[in-house]
Amino acid sequence: MGNLMGSLRYKEPRTVEECDSTWESDSESEEQPGDEDSGISEQQPYNFDGMHPCSQPSDSKSSTKMKRSFYAAKDLYKYRHSYPNYKAPRLPNDYRNLRFYLNKIPLIPDGIFIEEILTKWRGNYDKLEHNHTYIQWLFPLREQGLNFYAQELTQEEIKEFQSTREAKRRFLLAYTLMLDFYGIKLLDKSGNVARASNWQERFQHLNESQHNYLRITRILKSLGELGFEAFKAPLVRLLLDEALCRGTLPNMLHSTLEYYVYTIRLRSHRRSLLRYARQHYQPANTFLWGPPARRRGAEAGPGGRVAEPTPERERRGGDPHRACSPLTKKDSPGDDGETLAVGIPSSYTKPSVAFRAAKLVRRTGSYELFRYTVM
């Protein structure tokens, strides 16, 4: 019933902006617990020069042409909203994924049972790398993968899986199996992760073996489907840190920002990760995943389109009149991209519209420091 009502309300997104509700609320305090994108029910590759992953742009000239992938944004939008136009598989649902995890049937076409994978494949990195049929069975989704023998999940099977202790136990073991393959270890039942003892060798391999980036997207999606939503953010944070700050996984950076972050349903968690990324991303002015620029008073261009902001407008929050305001070099964007601290001469007594809601923070010499929200 949930999906039926969801399909009636569903409106196909047409732009990246319509797919992304990450910055829908202005602050963390406005978001209530459970304010997720998955409100419809209870619970592909990025195309950049033909490759799923992409490192940071090497020069500003090429970076100006970069855009977020609409394909990626739409794919993750549908996932976070529990596939609002989802149709159950035509074949009768025999809970094949659940039965596989209960060790009652083998995966097809290999004929291997889950217990054999969990006990004999750990540490067999060649097998985990080159076998391409097991990943759809270990991490099922409500969408068809490359192994057409693997059955798609249904909402009924998801509910049954989440209430079956033995299946969930083996699912966590499968997750740790893949984490070890990638050089990561699970620390606790909250999903926290860290580098494993083999991280150097495995990270080097992961940085070069880019088909695994698609696998990680599937793993993250499956975690959310089968009751482990809280496990996503710690893994994404670690991958983001390794790709962006430590430089061990540079080839994974774009996949992390374009895909992995957006598998997370809770908007506050996405915002936290993106704020962290923006602090370290270089060149800073090419960061594509922050809050949209607020363009008050922007002039409409041909066809009624709003004119793109100039770099000066975007840096100062989108107000076309602010460049004329008597601002000082103390003007700097806040860490959330939505409030700014501005030094204004104390003698300036006629604030513009942008400063009407300004709040005095402190006085410094002949300047008064205000913090205001761009309207």
Automatic annotation (TrEMBL):
Residues in Opioid growth factor receptor (OGFr) conserved domain copies: 92-294
One Gene Ontology cellular component annotation held by this UniProt entry: membrane
InterPro entries recorded: OGF_rcpt, OGFr
Domain of life: Eukaryota
A molecular-function term among this protein's GO annotations: opioid growth factor receptor activity
Region: Disordered, residue numbers: 1-63, 292-343
Family classification: Belongs to the opioid growth factor receptor family.
Record PANTHER family: OPIOID GROWTH FACTOR RECEPTOR OGFR ZETA-TYPE OPIOID RECEPTOR (PTHR14015), OPIOID GROWTH FACTOR RECEPTOR-LIKE PROTEIN 1 (PTHR14015:SF0)
Protein name from the UniProt record: Opioid growth factor receptor like 1
